[in-house]
Amino acid sequence: MNEFTMNFTKDEKKARAEYPRPQFVREEWLNLNGEWEFEFDYGKSGIDRKLFEGGEFSRKIQVPFCPESSLSGIGCKDFMNMVWYRRNVSLTPEAGKRILLHFQGVDYHAIVWINGQKAGEHKGGYTPFTIDLTDYIAAGDNTITLCAEDDVRSGEQARGKQCEQYYSFGCDYTRTTGIWQTVWLEYVPESYLDRFKFYPNASAGLLNLQCDIKGAAEGLMVKAEAYFQGEFMGKTESLVKSNETELSLSLLEKYLWMPGEPNLYDLKISLWKEKTKVDEVTSYFGLRDIYYDKEGVRINGRKIFQRLVLDQGFYPEGIYTAPSDEALKQDILLSMEMGFNGARLHEKVFEPRFLYWADHLGYLVWGEYGNWGLDITKRSALTVFLPEWIEAVKRDFNSTALVGWCPFNETWDQNFTRQEDSVLRIVYEVTKAIDGTRPVIDTSGNFHVVTDIFDIHDYEQEEELFAEKFKAMGEGGETYVTFPERQSYNDQAYFVSEYGGIWWSEADSEGWGYGKRPGSREEFLNRYRSLTTTLLRNKRISGFCYTQLYDVEQEVNGLYTYTREAKFDPALIREINVQKAAIEE
């Protein structure tokens, strides 16, 4: 068997050139973003025609942008049931190394060939997958070919907010097909660090780690060192006895991570064989404990009112893909400027770089999934949903800013058939089994089956009617429950996870939002103040999520436009949002 490493010559300017996996970083890697060959395959005949063996592709595309986007250089908005990608990469041999090819996100069913040989496949548009190239490559030029099949109208795949109709409609928008996140290569030793899970203990001032190792584990040692702002904070080591090893790292000084106070420790994890270091990964973590009860979520013992905003993760030129790393950071800063302390990452699994910035800016997030499009009236939906959801939970487990999971959103009846409650229950239980440290909302809004936090959606625009719905519960009376014939409140924390949606656009009279459009800017601000203050002043409500941060295409109920221009002075919105909540008194 031949083994190789990459030639790291940078021969072209890369789009999205930053490291794509910021909590698991190796120094040497090769970004494969940039120009790839591209071909449409409307008849899905490319496999029969053996396009993976060669032949001309008629177009070029800029990876990692989807072909629907202008940044891809193609901009095709039609349905694309199958597309093909191809590029060559030069590899140079080095003994004792394995080469891994990473796709951070391909929508939806991807098949990969290396030099005409099938090397692997993956189903799911939101999570990364890895192909070990070592057995397929030769010295010199090697050809990577990828085919992506995508059918948002099938009912058998999750699409999120990608529209099933030709034109964007309602709260569904332009589709994403094929590669939409970074493609990259790295080399690793025969035995290497594959994954780790962090279990911070803020009270005790320590970090418990679980490290997974690929390859032969006998005779290996794992070492971990922590630093805070360059100062040494502690180290630990453990002899590897199996491919899963646990360590505990006591910290010399405690610096807690809180919303708006993003204290983070740097971490080095290395793998040793005798006195030789064979692998090393750098990372970071925050000391952050999460606890939840009837009153809400506590972080490091402090009760936190969640002032969240709905973030859909769409971009005018990149669709699902941010045009730059700075754009990811900027969306968080725009939100914080208006007084929000976090976001629901809505109907999509956001890329790891967004979570990186949330961690580093002290911005709370809820991890979601783009479940819309998947028919969950049948138990068979689990075979589609669970594999990718498990990948998403594992991928983002170590994020400090991520304070909860919400696998489903508004699981409405389909074709006069109710949701299959066992689907929600099983997904909830699996999520808790993987991550027992965070709360899980089974389905946001409706219809709850088993949930740690009871949330509702209410887009009532009449201020008095909105306030009346919550009045009794605020005075110690009956809890307001939407769809009481389908779901019940069981003394959990209460979260209004969608409200508002007030539409405002001076330039677009054809767009839409919820309810009657305000007649003036003053009327908008008065309505926003009234709805938001109602929630803040209710001692039974632990958080809100306003719809939404920015417009998306025809939906013009954002506080910013689609191009991220503020519709109102951010200071006016901030003054409303940062009022002290009743649970904070």
Q: Strand fraction band?
A: 25-35%
In total, the number of strands is 34
Mean pLDDT: 95
Helix content class: 10-25%
| Count of alpha/pi helices | 7
- Segments where pLDDT lies below 50 for 5+ residues? 1-11
By secondary-structure content and strand pairing, the structural class works out as alpha+beta
Please state the overall shape, judged from the principal axes of the Cα atoms.
globular
Instruction: Kindly provide the radius of gyration, computed on alpha-carbon positions and rounded to a whole number of angstroms.
Output: 24 Å
Separation of the first and last Cα atoms: 67 Å
Describe the biggest sheet?
7 strands, antiparallel
What does this structure look like?
The chain is α+β, with helices and mostly antiparallel strands. 15% of the residues lie in helices and 34% in strands. Strands 1, 3, 4, 5, 8, 9 and 11 form a 7-stranded antiparallel β-sheet that branches. The chain is globular, with a radius of gyration of 24 Å. 47% of the residues are buried. The model is unreliable at 1-11 (pLDDT under 50).
